[in-house]
Structure formats: structure tokens, C-alpha cells
Design a protein that fits this description.
599 residues, alpha+beta, Threonyl-tRNA Synthetase, Chain A, domain 2, BirA Bifunctional Protein, domain 2, Rossmann fold, 3 domains, eight-stranded mixed beta sheet, 18 helices, 36% helix
Length: 599
């Protein structure tokens, strides 16, 4: 298909090409805006880009759009596609563009234009009676959008700022072929079934309460148990690898964050207690990270090079003031817990310790079954935005060169993310997608050559000189809440046995077997198996079905025959009947499955 690129040139591209896909979906967003203006002429237009799986457009309309309105808008869009309107690009000066948008009453376009330099030349795209301020790219004719579907309508603050007006955002997706759209919609439906926000609540892993607040989930007993299991496993694994456990405060005076630089670079993302602008009054902030707290362990006394590396680990509860629009179940929250660690080391130890951090992260993710869904990003600074970062260009170039070399030496295939670094250093971000394809960071490993000096961290080297150590900031598994969300989605709620809140349900057929069922339940518990007894006066099939809906790995059904033979009739949550098995034999199998962390 023919594409009008951002320079106005006509180029060839297919939907499989990123350029072609973005152009088609960007055109779909313009078709959406044109349809809305035809049906609801008083609506004001904001912005409408293509996004990873489709497109959206933000509108300002006095009467909110309802889900039922999407059908009418989508029908109008299909009419515009059939009209096969030609798209043409033209440019105007800033003054001409302002005049045109002011006359059209498009106040949001006027605001965007006013933010541009006076000598700017602005591009517009026209299709039939519709014209929009836009940089492109677009397809040449609306008929290229063979398949389009509007998926939802939601609220969105103008320019993502909650101080601005709430607009209405209509989401949609578009494809070059109808078959591809149908396949995508089927995949989305499957994703909705696996959405942790749905099944995590249905299985009672977590809930949210309006009076507590957005981004502050309540972990129910099942969710709390899984996170406890993961936490104990990670802490034990870190101990095997020479980590020292710390427990540090959840908040500190602003003085600490001023030393680290978080007060200057991260203050808007912190929860502050007290007046931050009153220098004479005491002011505290809940911690968004643990590093400046753990440094105090190193600073407690004079250190020798022989004491390094010092590996400090902590299960850290952190607080970050995320935007309300970013909140999503357990994926992005305002209070969360991570497997945080800081390695304080000599420069000659950097390569080996970085490798160790990488091996630990890969081991944890592989054991959980998430590694196969992960990608790696080398997050770097943006030299054009030095106000965001500590240090000099020379220091950043050195740190990034070292990090890149270590990644290459360890065989990591990565993409580069510019302006994604921490303010004090580059990092490796291990990314994992949720069921809807949105990518979030699950593990980070960061090399820091700056903060040790700011905190006065020194050790006596082999030449009896005081020198600053290097620091590696890392997580072993990342945010426990986010990991739980990804695990629920990965396994559709049927977690591997070793991490399942309840691993076996003992089910009675008749009341007279209750004593034997109790003995079996206690025998399972004695071997560390998380077992529950269901001796309710309900049918066995009813109780089995209930256990399957709870995603419990094994159901041990007991009737008169099992009592006589000293066995249990074993069924699995996916409907398999394993037959009668001696109790001791089942326990041995179950213990092996748990200890090997089988998936």
C-alpha cells in the first residue's frame, strides 16, 4: 500500500512493516475523528495517535459517549472507508495554522500550535471534508483500512495531567485484512479471560476498596500466601549467594533524599509528610527506593577492600505516587514490595558481580516460567536532557560503555532505550508483557558510579588509600505484586503446585469416612503440603467442581473403598482421574513436585 510519510513523500509499505502498520492505524484514528464530527459536530478534537495494538482519539463533548454510541460511530467509519477518500498533506505557517484552527473552534489544536516556535511550519492531512493537524504518516486512501473495530471508551486527562480537563478517549484497532482483525479480537477475548484483574479477584487473591484508595490493593489470604512463598524462596536463594539481610525504615527526612538526588529528580513521585518548602520544619517522605537506607549499613564503620563485595538484600516495601490513569490491578500500584539489593564492590569485582546478579534474575524468572516471555532493554540516558541526570557526559559514557560490554560478554540480546536510565546510571531492564501486550519492567540491574561519592562511602584499598566503591542496584525477581499478576495471567490462575495457596483438597463422599479423611489431611500437612478438608454434606461431584474452579492442583476423593485400601482417589484440576493411589505414594509424588518446583 502507498504511504504518505512525515515528509510528504509517497513510499510503499505493507501492514507487516512498522511504517505501514502505524500509517494505517493513524489513518483509522482520523477516520474515527471524521465520523465523530459528522455525527456530533459540536465535539472538540484533541489528539489521536496510533499505538501498539491500534489507535485512539481524545474528544471533548458535553454529553459523554456511551458504549452504545460506538456502534453508530463505527458504522459511520465504515462509510468513510467505502468512500475511498484520498488523503493529502499540506503545510501552513504557525500563524496560518492558528487562524484556521481558531476559526474551526478547535481549542485543543490551538493550544498545541501555541506551544510551537513562531517560525514553525505545521503539516495537516485532509480527507474529504475533514482536516486535522498531524505530522503523519498516513495511507493514501481511506479504503486501505479494510477492517476496523472500536473497542472501548474511557476518560483521559488532556495531556495526561490530572489538573486538566477530563476528555473522552475512544480506543480502536484496525487491520489491512478482516481475517487478521478476527484473529486479534479472539486473542483479546482470551486475554480478558486471563486478565489478573478479573480472575485474581474471582479467585480471591486480591481486592481493592474505594475508601482505602486507588493503587493500594488488599492482598487476600491466597494472594498473601503466594507472595510469602515467593519472598521466602528469594530470601533463601539470596542467602545461599552471600547476601546479608537488612531491614530499614519506610520513611526518612528529606535530608537523606537530598544527598541521593531523589529530592531533586524524583520529588513529584514521592509521598511527602510535612511542608516540603518549609526548610525550618521537619519534613519526611515515604521511601520510593531503599538504596540510601542500605548505604548506612556500609557507612556504619570504616571498611577495608577485603570486606568487598558487600551484598545487601532486603524485601522492601516502597511507595510511589503514580498517576491515577496508570493504575492497573497489581501491575502498577502505589505501594509495592520488591526483592531489592545493593552490591557494594571494588571496580575489579564489577564483571563477576554483574554476572551473578544476571544469573540470579534469570534463575528466578526461569523457575517461575516467566523468562520465556521476557525481553531485555539496555536503558541509557539522553544527552539532550542533562537536567534529568546526575553526573557528567564522561561519567555516563564510561558507565554505559562498561554496562554494554558486560551485557555483550554475558550473551544478552537487548534493545536500547534512550532516556530510560535511572538518574544516577544506566541499567538493564528485563521487560515482561501482560496478557494485553503492555510491557512493564519486572527486574532491573543498574551500575552506579556516582552515589557512593555523594554519600561519602569509602573503603581502604590495598595501597592503604581511601577510594569510592562501585554499586550495583538490582532486584532478584522485582515487584512481588506485579509478579503475582503476571503469574496469574501466565497460568490462567492455575499456579504451579509449589506456589499454589492450597495444594490439595481432601474430599469426602460420605460422612462415615470423615475420620480417615482427617488422618489423610493431617498426614499431608505433616509433610508440608498445604491441604484442606472438605467434609461438607454435599455431593462429591459438587465439591470436586468447586475445587477445580478454585484451581487447586489435586483433589483426593475418599469413600468406603479408599478407607478399606488405605488409598486416595486422585483427580487433577484439569479433569484427569489418576485413580486410587496409596497415601504415602501420593505424598512422595507431591513432595517431589513441590521440591523440584515443577511446572
Amino acid at each position: 500500500m502507498k504511504i504518505i510519510d512525515k515528509n510528504g513523500a509517497i513510499v510503499e509499505a505493507t501492514f507487516e512493516d512498522e511504517l505501514g502498520r502505524n500509517a494505517l492505524r493513524h489513518t483509522a484514528s482520523h477516520i474515527l475523528a471524521q465520523a465523530v464530527k459528522r455525527l456530533y459536530p459540536d465535539t472538540k478534537l484533541a489528539i489521536g495517535p496510533s499505538i501498539e495494538n491500534g489507535f485512539y482519539y481524545d474528544f471533548d463533548r458535553e454529553t459523554p459517549f456511551a458504549e452504545s454510541d460506538l456502534e453508530a460511530i463505527e458504522a459511520e467509519m465504515k462509510k468513510i472507508v467505502k468512500e475511498n477518500l484520498k488523503l493529502t498533506r499540506f503545510t501552513l505557517s504557525r500563524a496560518e495554522a492558528l487562524k484556521m484552527m481558531e476559526e474551526a473552534g478547535e481549542i485543543y489544536k490551538v493550544e498545541l500550535i501555541n506551544d510551537l516556535p513562531e517560525d514553525a511550519e505545521l503539516s495537516f492531512f485532509k480527507q474529504g471534508d475533514f482536516t486535522d493537524l498531524c505530522a503523519g504518516p498516513h495511507v493514501s486512501y481511506t479504503s486501505a483500512v479494510k477492517a476496523v473495530k472500536l473497542t472501548s471508551v474511557t476518560g483521559a486527562y488532556w495531556r495526561g495531567n490530572e489538573k486538566n480537563k477530563m476528555l473522552q478517549r475512544i480506543y480502536g484497532t484496525a487491520f489491512a485484512k478482516k481475517d487478521d482483525l478476527e484473529k486479534y479480537l479472539a486473542a483479546v477475548e482470551e486475554a480478558r479471560k486471563r486478565d489478573h484483574n478479573k480472575i485474581g479477584r474471582e479467585l480471591e487473591y486480591f481486592t481493592t476498596v474505594d475508601t482505602i484508595g486507588q493503587g493500594l490493593p488488599i492482598l487476600m489470604p491466597k494472594g498473601a500466601r503466594v507472595i510469602q512463598l515467593l519472598q521466602r524462596w528469594v530470601e533463601d536463594e539470596e542467602q545461599k549467594r552471600g547476601y546479608l539481610l537488612t531491614k530499614t525504615p519506610l520513611m526518612a527526612k528529606r535530608d537523606l533524599y537530598k544527598i541521593s538526588g531523589h529530592w531533586d529528580h524524583y520529588r513529584d513521585g514521592m509521598f511527602i509528610l510535612g511542608d516540603p518548602d518549609d526548610e525550618d520544619a521537619e519534613c519526611f517522605a515515604l521511601r520510593p527506593m531503599t538504596c540510601p537506607f542500605q548505604y548506612q549499613v556500609f557507612l556504619h564503620k570504616k571498611r577495608s577492600y577485603r570486606e568487598l563485595p558487600m551484598r545487601l538484600g532486603e524485601t522492601s516495601t516502597l511507595f510511589r505516587n503514580e498517576d491515577s490513569g496508570e493504575m492497573h490491578g497489581l501491575i502498577r500500584v502505589r505501594q509495592f514490595t520488591i526483592s531489592e539489593g545493593h552490591l557494594i564492590l571494588r571496580p575489579d569485582q564489577l564483571a563477576e558481580e554483574f554476572k551473578g546478579c544476571l544469573e540470579l534474575a534469570k534463575y528466578c524468572l526461569d523457575t517461575l516460567g516467566l523468562l520465556e516471555d521476557c525481553t531485555f532493554r539496555f536503558s541509557q540516558w539522553d544527552p539532550a536532557r542533562t537536567d534529568k541526570y546526575e553526573g557528567t557526559p564522561e561519567q555516563w559514557n564510561e558507565a554505559q560503555e562498561i554496562t554494554g560490554k558486560l551485557l555483550d560478554e554475558n550473551g544478552i540480546k537487548y534493545e536500547i532505550g534512550i532516556d530510560e536510565a535511572a538518574f544516577y546510571g544506566p541499567k538493564l531492564d528485563i521487560q515482561c508483557k501482560n496478557v494485553f501486550g503492555k510491557e512493564d519492567t519486572i527486574v532491573t540491574i543498574q551500575i552506579d558510579m556516582l552515589l557512593a561519592k555523594k554519600f561519602g562511602m569509602e573503603y581502604v584499598d590495598s595501597n592503604n588509600q581511601l577510594v569510592n566503591p562501585y554499586i550495583i542496584h538490582r532486584t532478584a525477581m522485582g515487584c512481588y505484586e506485579r509478579t503475582l499478576a503476571l503469574l496469574i495471567e501466565k497460568y490462567a490462575g492455575a499456579l504451579p503446585m509449589w506456589m499454589s495457596p492450597t495444594q490439595a483438597k481432601v474430599i469426602t463422599i460420605v460422612d462415615r469416612v470423615n475420620d480417615y479423611a482427617n488422618e489423610v489431611t493431617n498426614a499431608l500437612k505433616a509433610k508440608g503440603i498445604r491441604a484442606e478438608l472438605d467434609d461438607r454434606s454435599e455431593s462429591a461431584n459438587y465439591k470436586i467442581r468447586g475445587a477445580q474452579l478454585e484451581k487447586i492442583p489435586y483433589m483426593l476423593v475418599i469413600g468406603d473403598k479408599e478407607v478399606e485400601t488405605g488409598t486416595v482417589s486422585v483427580r487433577t484440576r484439569d479433569g484427569k482421574n489418576l485413580g486410587a493411589i496409596p497415601v504415602d505414594e501420593f505424598i512422595a509424588r507431591a513432595v517431589n513436585e513441590i521440591e523440584t518446583k515443577a511446572r
